[in-house]
Amino acid sequence: MKVFVTGASGFIGSAVVKDLIAGGHQVLGLARSTAVAEKLTASGAEVYYGDLTDPESLTSAVLATDAVIHLGFIHDFTRFKEMCALDEKVIETIGAALAGTQKPFVITSAIGVISKEGIITEQDRAENSLNPRIATEKAADRIAAQGIRVAIVRLSPVVHDRGDVHGFIPTLIRLAKEKEVSAYINDGANVWPAVHRLDVAQLYRLVLEKNTENGARYHAVAEQGVKVKQIAEVIAEKLNLPAVSVKSEEAESHFTLFTHFARFNVLASGDVTQRALDWHPGHPTLQEDLEGTVYFTSK
Questions:
Q1: Is 171 part of a structural domain of the chain?
Q2: Which of 73, 95, 119, 184 could form a disulfide with 188, with the two C-beta atoms 3.0–4.6 Å apart?
């Protein structure tokens, strides 16, 4: 297939592009600058100039390809609700261009849109979620109801690998360096699901090739939940800093804009995904990447 990929030059998107090409597919990657275009060309992808802030600019690429993987999202957390509304518009615009076709459309969401006690599964829906990102899944369901072949990949809060510079782990590392302590909230027993970037890349390709259920959710989850205290302690050891507990009422002064995410306590399963797609995550665990040189230079 020839696949149009938004977010094709990003941390996850670049890995997806490589996996698609290795799997025999052609890729048309979205670019809004010559620097991004050069990166895509070097990876073996064709380049399509457009911009997520102008959803209509994507239509020609959708019409010219056999499938769409939508990974692009503008991570401006000062305007998070606005960016979620924009993502909703992008999905609706792509969906309109796919009307009357049977082209697959794989959309990116996040495990964090679901809030519940116990383990989050692929069957869970978040109709009443207060997380603005739920707009993505609601838009996906609307176009699925119109007959568009939609599948949703929910990403773990931690997608780890070399090149991760904006995720949860590098954020904790930056905070530790700034504050000279590696912190967790209260007892640090809250957990984050995790998955290696290369396993995620393979998952997107498998969803593209194998999904038959319109509106299906798939979970990019290799580890159901890694304790935040465990993460903080490895960071402390690597940076030769103390690992400390921060009381809940003092968390915001330490974690600032990251406080909401530092409080995350999420267990999620990818068992249905693994069985349905024969997906078997096999790349290093988060602990292995933390203890190696992925996030820290060797001594």
A1: yes
A2: 184
